[in-house]
Amino acid sequence: MEDIVRKINAGLGPREIDLSVEACGIIPVDRLAPGRTLALSESIVSEIFRETGIPADQASLCWEDMVTKMSFGNMLQMSIAQRHRSWSSIAARLRVCERTRKMTNSHVSMTAPDLAFIIAVFFFRKMQTRTDKNFRYKKYFINFFGDLNCMQWLPVAIKVHSQINGRVFLVRLNERVNEPLVHSENIEGMENTSLCDAFRLPFLGSSSSPTFSKPDIHLGETFMVVTTKKPPTNIYEAGMQEIVRQIIGQGDDAITSHSSDSLEKSRKSIEKVESDSTPLESVAPSIKQSPDPEDQHDESLETQPDRQINSDTLCDHARHMKVLGKRLASPDKKFVRRVRRDIRRFADLTDERENETELEHPSGPSRPPSSREFGPDAGNRIDLFGRYKMLWKGSL
Asked: H helices within the chain, ranges in order?
């Protein structure tokens, strides 16, 4: 603890200090120099802006609100997340997001300050939180940050923060939009009982229920809808996926942080993908409850030397995807089916090219063309099969 206090007072950043609950359950803020806890909050928010590629001066109001919501000095004095003064609103927002998604059948996002608070809790303070006995909160957390990968909307939430008035908002994708567009829309078909129930989430770890001055949504109230292109992958997506995997793997009522180096691995992985001239779209990773021996087949693909891909190998990988895809959640199954269908199309195209080659050169030896020799991007020599293999790896 003495070492942590000394480093904070020396002005080191949050990445240079082990601020986890494991290192020190309660850090005495009264022994810190004036302004040091605020500086820690500002450093964390600055990293979030840097990782999402948004200059702080382009969203100064959001930057300030994220620092205020985080209240990192308060976070240093506790080891359980629900004791933080901002946690009750986060718990309510999770259920509101779940209800809203079911009612509108749309992508839903929390506000940027809410997501920044989650990042500070699990990535920097690495706190724990307890769930209520009926498992509701844990289910919503897993669904929101695991299956739906809603941390991917962090850059969008930052950009539109000043326009959504601190409310949960709907996300609609349109790749032709350069910057997020915000408008209000009245969604029909809502039930008053469901909406009222969305704000009766029990306070986590307590027998009493919190009260909220104003719910995010009412019967007949208009929603804020954000139309945007799919944002680039950020490092916190993979980190939250790892946290959710640990929650599922533990099978108990505690949410714990992921390993300290997982965030750095996520950053390096993203940098490697983004350095490619044809980066892949951000795809919501699926969550598996336990490691599977069959995944070794996927690892073998990575270590095998480059080889020519013919229709048989493409179909073989498509069949293997079908087997693995049966264990995925419904949204991921649809994605796997789409990729399998495209792979089979390329397999058929490979056969057509083989037939054309045999007709043009009947006396010469036939050679199965590689995946670089066909398809709409053949002129640019893009390894189409390699791209589908990467999509396959991401879907698992």
From this structure: 2-9, 36-52, 60-70, 72-75, 87-104, 112-119, 136-142, 154-159, 161-164, 192-197, 235-250, 262-274, 295-303, 311-325, 330-360, 384-395
